[in-house]
Amino acid sequence: MSSEITPQYLKAPRTASIVGCPFSGGQPKLGVDKGPIHLVEAGLVNQLEELGWNVKFDGHHQFEDIKYALSSSSSIDPSAPTASSAANDDASTSNHWDPPIGILKNPRLVSRVCEEVAKVVSGHAKNGELPVTLGGDHSLAMGTISGTLDAHPEAGVIWVDAHADINTAATTESGNIHGMPVSFLMGLDGNHQAFASFKPGPSPSSQTPFAWIKPVLKPSSIVYIGLRDVDAGEKKILKENKIKAFSMHDVDRYGIGRVVEMALEYLNGGYAQGDSKPRPIHLSFDVDALDPSVAPSTGTPVRGGLTFREGHYICERIWETGALVGLDIMEVNPSLEDDVSVKQTVAVGCSLVRSALGETLL
Ligand SMILES: NC(=[NH2+])NCCC[C@H](N)C(=O)O
Ligand SMILES: [Mn+2]
Ligand SMILES: [Mn+2]
């Protein structure tokens, strides 16, 4: 049963556009690219139609042409040895046409894929549709949030995650770009510094790949919920930029109900539009925010996470605001853990989307 809330920024009939992103280049574990395929095969489209949505889905995005364009425009000698020749379950093994920049892995590929995702998400949002992006790894949020902010420049972001994903090129220890999207969206200094020595070369692929990202996300326009595994460098960045974050400690102290109210009040505080509409919200949900007992099949699980209900409550409450303009469900990895765990994680991914799109308990 779907609730009677009217989405404030969507055109009637309310339309959800599924943006399936089979992409894993922002982290080393194979399989996260299969996440969107499993979510759709589990019946997500049908489930949303049953909630009264008009659903647009014309297949998952294929990023093959991006790889092809990058590899064929590469000025890098294909016979040159690459930085990594690790085991074949390591998706971070670098392509000769996309060698690391500093320690950042697959920088050109991640950047180009996100650039395409940004265009697609922005297009749907400008049409008055709700883009629902299925990851794929969380580096994709550089694309989804760029797209949302292009269409709704006033939007605030609620980032639900065990991790802050705000490392810069200067602070990342892993070089995995899924741990960095927020810093690129904010244009934080550590990125500029690290790319300063990066000389533009003769071919497009050798130019600073992230130049397309407009640093449009203000530190005051994001709130985190669920954090519990934040790197030392990230803690410093959060403090210095006075970024609002509710960790699991806060969820324990206040309960999820108050935490979500505080998050919404924070984003809406000082935000006034003539017509008194609530501020548009982009929800970026990394399933590793949930406890590993709830969502086991994910690449960087951290114990002590959100319960099943806490995760769903966040989605339900955001739906109630009528202000949702963009949704990401990220980091479902159907290649990790046993079949039962995979089914469970995929089912949770689908039910989070349904909750954010108006499914009610009564
Ligand atoms: N989207 C994620 N699951 N991110 C995990 C990031 C882990 C770690 N902080 C890193 O930067 O590598
Ligand atoms: Mn995470
Ligand atoms: Mn994440």
TrEMBL record:
Biological source species: Lentinula raphanica
Cofactor(s) needed for function: Mn(2+)
Keyword Metal-binding appears in the UniProt entry: yes
Positions of the UniProt region annotated as Disordered: 77-99
NCBIfam families: rocF_arginase (TIGR01229)
EC identifiers of the protein: 3.5.3.1
Cofactor note: Binds 2 manganese ions per subunit.
GO MF annotations in UniProt: arginase activity; manganese ion binding
PROSITE patterns documented for this protein: ARGINASE_1, ARGINASE_2
Enzyme class: hydrolase
Biased composition, class Low complexity, residue ranges: 77-95
Keyword Zinc carried by entry: no
Pathway field: Nitrogen metabolism; urea cycle; L-ornithine and urea from L-arginine: step 1/1
Protein name: Arginase
GO process annotations (BP): arginine metabolic process
Record field: catalytic activity: L-arginine + H2O = urea + L-ornithine
PANTHER family in the cross-refs: ARGINASE
One GO CC term on file: cytosol
